Amino acid sequence: MKIPSIRTRRDMEMVADLRAAGATWETAALKVQRRAGLLRRWAKVYAEEWVRLFREAEERLGREANKVTGMLLNSLTTLRIFSFSAYTNTRRDVATPSCRWSRHH
Fold first, then answer.
1. What is the chain's Cα-based Rg?
2. How many domains does the chain have?
């Protein structure tokens, strides 16, 4: 098994994160200032390391997505409760005439 240099390993980590997020090889290459063909070659030459880094990046991305989804659902639930409360109060106000209206009519 070949071992990547420190710089290559650092760049592989960044590329794995980008690829897991859906970036193309070309986009990832621009970010690490390397050629796309070299990045593709890393996946073959350092296959075990690449698979591990990519899997870790996917797992991190999944955890972050779950966290964001949980916060979003919590916000939507809070908003729905608030909206429902405002709706029921509005409906109650419409259903019962105000004191001023009932005195004059």
1. 28
2. 1
pLDDT digits (tens, 9 = 90+) for 18-44: 999 999 999 999 999 999 999 999 999
Is the pLDDT at 15 greater than 80, yes or no? yes
**Above pLDDT 90, what percent of the chain?**
57
Q: What is the dihedral of CA 8, 9, 10, 14, to 10 degrees?
A: 100
Question: Is 100 part of any domain?
Answer: no
Q: What is the dihedral of CA 35, 38, 43, 44, to 10 degrees?
A: 160
**Nearest residue to 40 via CA among 27, 28, 55, 25:** 25
Place of tokens 């390993």: 9
Residue range(s) defining the domain that contains residue 21: 6-94
- With contact defined as beta carbons under 8 Å apart, do 18 and 28 qualify? yes
